[in-house]
Amino acid sequence: MNDSTPAPQVWPTLRARDARALIAFLVEAFGFEETAVFGEGDHVGHAQLSWPPGGGIMLGSVRETPDDKWNLAPGTFGAYVVTGDPDGLYARATAAGARVVQEPYDTDHGSREFAVRDPEDNLWSFGTYRGEPRVRG
Predict the structure, then answer these.
(1) DSSP secondary structure letters along 64-124
(2) 37 pairs with which residues across the strands?
(3) Rg for the chain (alpha carbons), in Å?
(4) Element (H, E) at 34
(5) pLDDT tens for the 137 residues of the chain, in order
(6) Distance CA 51, CA 56 (A)
(7) Which 8-state DSSP code applies to residue 59?
(8) C-alpha span between 22 and 57 (Å, rounded)
(9) pTM of the entire structure?
(10) Is 18 exposed, middle or buried (0-12, 13-18, 19+ CB in 10 A)?
């Protein structure tokens, strides 16, 4: 670990039929940053995509072997991601081919959000709601 290694946090994970294409889409459509990709050819053993305001996701190629201990089906992932510019991100995402589930709208809890699917059918929601402050006891 070096000085720029992020502090421990939650890392959502997903699997993809075409991990390299999904990585390219997530970078182009949503603005994730490709931080690390390990693998050869079409196979991605592990990839880390960072979300510029903080956090990120990890993903890899689906492994169709009976001994796969992390056998998530491609297209079953869902995430909510905080953004300060949901309308701008919606325009970027749809221009890159994201499939619209919900156009931008204002929620009753004060967030502006939208939802789309990526090419592998994973569900993504982006919005301004950052969550409530933690209560420490």
Answers:
(1) --TT-SS-PPTT--EEEEE-S-HHHHHHHHHHTTPEEEEEEEE-TTS-EEEEEE-TT--EE
(2) 47
(3) 16
(4) strand 33-38
(5) 456 666 768 899 999 999 999 999 999 999 999 999 999 999 999 999 999 999 999 999 999 888 888 889 999 999 999 999 999 999 999 999 999 999 999 999 999 999 999 999 999 999 999 988 888 76
(6) 5
(7) E
(8) 12
(9) 0.90
(10) middle
Q: Which residue has the tokens 């991100």?
A: 89
User: Tell me, what amino acid is at 68?
Assistant: D
What are the structure tokens assigned to 51, written together?
A: 């979300």
Q: How far apart are CA 25 and CA 70, in angstroms?
A: 23
Per-residue burial over 41-75, b if 16 or more Cβ lie within 10 Å, else e, is eeebeebbbebeeeebbebbbbeeeeeeeeeeebb
Taking alpha carbons only, the member of 94, 78, 75 closest to residue 86 is 94
